[in-house]
């Protein structure tokens, strides 16, 4: 410590004004240099530092202001999107309800159409059965008539002799001739 106080008190250590040199005593020169440098920095740097801080403050405020504006715009867009979503959901529900009712309507139309088709098929079936019955009845009639005719011819042929047969033919020819005269 004695050296530190001696360097401030002792004048013989200080160089003369005409000479210029470096003081290599760190303990003697650093506090003075630091004080001078800090004084110059505070005196001249105060305005620069103040301007830098003001600029930084303005940028931060502008950023906050822009962020608030963007936030407000984002909230507005979010509300619009929510409104569109509600509208789309309502339309989707309408389509769903209409789709279900349309499906029900189509289902009933298909059921009714199928029922009508089944009724037509039933009618065709009944008509076909009736036709087949009539056809079978007519076939049976023809067979009965054929058998009756064969039976009658067989009876006539066994009962008639040639003379009776010729007289029957002559009587029939006479009847045809009379009918022909009446018609003419």
From TrEMBL:
Spans through the membrane: 32-49
GO molecular function: proton-transporting ATP synthase activity, rotational mechanism
Pfam families tied to this protein: ATP-synt_B
Protein origin, superkingdom: Eukaryota
GO CC terms, sorted: chloroplast thylakoid membrane; proton-transporting ATP synthase complex
Keywords: ATP synthesis, CF(0), Chloroplast, Coiled coil, Hydrogen ion transport, Ion transport, Membrane, Plastid, Thylakoid, Transmembrane, Transmembrane helix, Transport
Coiled-coil parts of chain: 71-98
Family: Belongs to the ATPase B chain family.
Further remark: In plastids the F-type ATPase is also known as CF(1)CF(0).
Quaternary state and interactors: F-type ATPases have 2 components, F(1) - the catalytic core - and F(0) - the membrane proton channel. F(1) has five subunits: alpha(3), beta(3), gamma(1), delta(1), epsilon(1). F(0) has four main subunits: a(1), b(1), b'(1) and c(10-14). The alpha and beta chains form an alternating ring which encloses part of the gamma chain. F(1) is attached to F(0) by a central stalk formed by the gamma and epsilon chains, while a peripheral stalk is formed by the delta, b and b' chains.
Protein name: ATP synthase subunit b, chloroplastic
Protein species of origin: Primula sinolisteri var. sinolisteri
Source species taxonomy: Eukaryota, Viridiplantae, Streptophyta, Embryophyta, Tracheophyta
The gene coding this protein: atpF
């Amino acid at each position: 410590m004695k050296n530190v106080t001696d360097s401030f008190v002792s004048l013989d250590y200080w160089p003369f004004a005409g000479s210029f040199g470096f003081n290599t005593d760190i303990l003697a020169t650093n506090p003075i240099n630091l004080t001078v440098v800090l004084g110059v920095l505070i005196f001249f740097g105060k305005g620069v530092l103040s301007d830098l801080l003001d600029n930084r403050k303005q940028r931060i405020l502008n950023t906050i202001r822009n962020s608030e504006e963007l936030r407000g715009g984002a909230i507005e867009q979010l509300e619009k999107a929510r409104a569109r979503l509600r509208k789309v959901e309502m339309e989707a529900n309408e389509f769903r309800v209409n789709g279900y009712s349309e499906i029900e309507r189509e289902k009933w139309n298909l059921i009714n159409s199928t029922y009508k088709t089944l009724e037509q098929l039933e009618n065709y079936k009944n008509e076909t059965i009736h036709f087949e019955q009539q056809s079978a009845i007519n076939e049976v009639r023809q067979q009965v008539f054929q058998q009756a005719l064969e039976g009658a011819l067989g009876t006539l042929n066994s009962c008639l002799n040639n003379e009776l047969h010729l007289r029957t033919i002559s009587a029939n020819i006479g009847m045809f001739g009379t009918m022909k005269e009446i018609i003419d």
